[in-house]
Amino acid sequence: xxxxxxxxxxxxxxxxxxPRLAVFTKNLINPAYAAARLGAERVARRFAGAVExxxxxxxxxxxxxxxxxxxxxxxxxxxxxxxxxxxxxVNDAILRLNAARIPMFTFVTPVTAGExxxxxxxxDTSIGKAIARRLFESLGGKGRIVILEGSPASETSRxxxxxxxxxxxxxxxxxxxGSLAGDYQRGVARAAFQKFISASPIPEGxxxxxxxxxxxxxxxxxxxxxxxxxxTIVGVNAIPEAIDAIIAGRMLxxxxxxxxxxxxxxxxxxxxxxxxxxxxxxxxxxxxIVDRTNASQWALPYDARELPVWGRVA
Length: 314
Description:
The protein is of the alpha/beta class and 314 residues long. The protein has two domains: 8-122 and 258-286, Response regulator (Rossmann fold, 3-Layer(aba) Sandwich); 124-255, 3-Layer(aba) Sandwich (Rossmann fold), CATH 3.40.50. The protein is 40% helix and 18% strand. It is built from ten helices and 13 strands. The protein has helices spanning 31-46, 62-75, 91-99, 124-138, 155-168, 186-199, 211-224, 240-248, 259-274, 310-313, and strands spanning 8-9, 20-24, 50-55, 79-82, 104-107, 118-121, 143-149, 174-181, 205-208, 232-236, 253-255, 282-284, 289-290. The strands form two sheets. It has a seven-stranded mixed β-sheet, sandwiched between helices. A six-stranded mixed β-sheet has the order 8-7-9-10-11-13, with helices on both faces. Strand 7, helix 5 (155-168) and strand 8 form a beta-alpha-beta unit. The two termini are 39 Å apart. Mean pLDDT is 93; it is low at 1-6.
């Protein structure tokens, strides 16, 4: 790999005598994936194992993730825990992982090639419907709203958008003023929303497919000075900064699509499989709506948040 790529490979955590897992996440900029890596590390410590992180320097970069998978194969981990940066474009590398007989456990985004032992996720269409309904009902069922979409390569974004649109159809007095590409990134969302409000009135609501984009929207409004009443903003992921914004009144709500929990459960499935246990092929975690009525339960750093109990989710 060329020096211009420089993908991040984190240190191994945990004692070296136990099983060693390669953990693949999508980027270094989304706090949800930092939490996912922490979830893997917390589980590895409990199982006296080790994890090594493989993360593209360029967010969601396909060639870098392919190169990282190939590099991991050479290091012969006992298992791989992976969320693909693209649903089809890393398939050849995933097939090489399978051919190397390295057990694969996936989370957040399902793979479309290979034979994962377990996939851990949530129902993104239902999440999209629930957070959209929370926003539209808070607006009294009327007003102009803008959608901030996630990465077009991400299945989570497509399913959340499906949920948004299904709920829009139930609220005929909610007007969709624009659907903007935010790519699940704060800076991209900020620029997209700044461009929109420079040419159009500020909408009454903003429906964001993740919290990072919701925070980017708040950044754009702060830079603009909020000459008009601020819109009601919702997101997805329940990241700590979004919880702070909800408590402060800058966001209405988020959905607890919990990447840390998903990666932790996938990592636990890997360790249990390696010691001979039978693990489920699919595990779906519930996602709850978080607003000011219950935000205090999430007002904790990731390392203090509870992880799912295996016996309850599996």
